[in-house]
Every structure is written in structure tokens, then in C-alpha cells.
Amino acid sequence: xxxxxxxxxxxxxxxxxxxxxxxxxxxxxxxxxxxxxxxxxxxxxxxxxxxxxxxxxxxxxxxxxxxxxxxxxxxxxxxxxxxxxxxxxxxxxxxxxxxxxxxxxxxxxxxxxxxxxxxx
Length: 120
Known about the structure:
By secondary structure, the chain is α+β, with helices and mostly antiparallel strands.
């Protein structure tokens, strides 16, 4: 299962509304030892993402769900606000940011990366 966006994913993402602010919902399922590895990625993310206007809104570990279908429990949730979809895409393509993406990939066996916008 893919855990990282592809070029085609980013192209479709940008086609919707490139200058619109977006909050990215990350649902994360860790590989064995992945929690510590993902925490390393979060530290890297904090060091490299600020110049793109990214702001971590929330990062927390999941627990036993109260209501969920089988297989819908997630190990962690991350919400990151970006000033625009373009800012997110620029960050993902940035060489300095890219030096730490292996930490994310190695940490995860499954992920959902869902763009969201605030409801009126």
C-alpha cells in the first residue's frame, strides 16, 4: 500500500484549487518500530516545513476506537494546516524536505492523506 503521494497525486491535488488553504488529515498505521521512526520524521518536518507556512494543528496517538468497522483503528492522527495546496506541493518536492521522507515511509504500513477545508 502506498504511503507517499506520487507526482500524479500532486497534479490532481493542485488541479482542484491551488491557492486555497488546506488542512491535511493524516491517518497513520505504524510498522513494527514505526512510532519512534515517525517521531523522528515529525522532528524533521518541524525543521523543514515552517518556510512553507505549514503548521501542525494536532499530532496524537490513537487508542481503541469507540465506534469503527474492523480494521479502521489508526495508530496516530496528524493535522497540518498549509496556506495553500501549492505550499503543500512545494514542500513535498523540496530537496531539503525530501532528505527526511524516508523516515515517514519506513515508519508506516498504511496511511490516508486527506485534504480538508473548513466548513462554513
